[in-house]
Amino acid sequence: QVQLVESGGGLVQTGGSLRLSCGASGHDFRSYAMGWFRQAPGKEREFVATISASGGDTNYADSVKGRFTISRDNAKNTVYLQMNSLKPEDTAVYYCARGRIPYVRGPFGSWGQGTQVTVSS
After folding, report:
1. What is the Cα gyration radius of the chain?
2. Looking at the predicted structure, is the pLDDT value of residue 55 above 80?
């Protein structure tokens, strides 16, 4: 009964910024690591960033390191992805997901519906 709803996607020019949000319900949000993934047409879904249950530890794909920031507000059951210096190769559908095991950043599941991010050149 985990529900994740992404929002905040849109069209932005190269170098621009977007802030994605993922609202969670149906589980003890504070007990689970959260992650952001993305998938472009014809490509496999790829890892973007993860954050530990407490928010004290984060991890990023090399392709976004230094440009994207993942954060969470456990009081609001929401995880965010701040995306700066966007590039056309960032164009994809972005999904948030919950870790399958409490307090463990490992397998992710319970995917949201995704939000489209398009970066024009």
Report:
1. 13
2. yes
